[in-house]
Write the C-alpha cells for this entry.
Amino acid sequence: MSDYAVELDDVAVRFRSKKREVTALREVTMRVEPGEFVAIVGPSGCGKSTLLKLASGLLAPSAGAVRLLGEEVTSPRKDVGYVFQKAALLEWRTARKNILLQAEMRHLPSARANERADELIAMTGLSGFADAYPHELSGGMQQRVALCRALLHRPPVLLMDEPFGALDALTREQMNVELRRIWQDTGTTVLLVTHSIAEAVYLADRVVMMTARPGSIAGVVDVNLPRERDYAKTMSEPEFGKATGQIRDHLGAAVAAE
Ligand SMILES: Nc1ncnc2c1ncn2[C@@H]1O[C@H](COP(=O)(O)OP(=O)(O)OP(=O)(O)O)[C@@H](O)[C@H]1O
Ligand SMILES: [Mg+2]
C-alpha cells in the first residue's frame, strides 16, 4: 500500500469566538507511514490534541488537507482507535462491558467481539479483573481497559493523547513496555502525544517536535534504536541519550521563546 496512514498537508487550524481568535496550528505538513509509531512532543497549548482531532475527523482544518489511509477526512472516522488522557470509563459497567462498548457502538458481531475482548484482556494483563468495575481498578488498570476498548475493532490507526500522564512512574514504564509489545503484535499505526521525552524515544520510530503556539513542526528526530527494546537496556543506549538530548534542547528553546 502506497498510501500514508496519516497525512497532513499544509494544515492550519484557527478557533474563532466573540472574545478571541486563536491560531492553534499553522503550516503543518506531516506524513506517517502505515505501521509506523510516531510520537509528538511540544509545549502545552501548541496544538497536539488539535492535531489528533484533525486526524480522526473530530475537527476540520481551517486550511489544508487531512488524509487518513489515503482518503480525505471529512467527518469523524470509525477506522481509528482513540485513547484520551483520562480513561473515560463508564462507572456502571464492568471492565469487560466497557471494552465491549466499542463493539456495541459499531454493531460488530458479538461472538467475534467477545473473543477479541478476551484476547485483549489477556494481552494487557487484565485477566481476573474483567468483571471488576472501574472504581475497583487502579489508574493503570483503567487506562489498560481504555486501551483495550480503543483496540477492539482492530483499528489500522491508533491515536493516543497523553494516555499515561496520570500514572505513577513505574506503572507508566510497564504501560510503555506493554504498548510497544501490542504495537509490534498488531502492526497498527500509532500517533502518540506525550510530555515525556523518555516515553517518546523509547516507544517511537520518529519523534515530531512542535513549536509553541501557533504550533508548527519544529523538527523530527529519528530514533535509531533496535525494534526489540528492553526497557532498562534501552535507557542506557548512547542512541537513547542522543535522541532525548536533541529533543530536550529543542523543547527548552521552545519554552524559553514563549
Ligand atoms: N475547541 C476549541 N475552541 C477554542 N480554542 C481551542 C479549542 N481547542 C483548542 N483550542 C486552543 O487551541 C490551542 C491548542 O490547543 P490543544 O489542546 O491542541 O493544545 P495541546 O498542545 O494539546 O496542549 P496540552 O499539552 O496542554 O494538552 C490552545 O490555545 C487552545 O486554547
Ligand atoms: Mg492536549
In short: Helices lie at 48-56, 95-106, 110-123, 139-151, 169-186, 197-203, 231-235, 238-257. The chain has two domains: 6-79+157-257, 87-154. The chain has a mean pLDDT of 92.
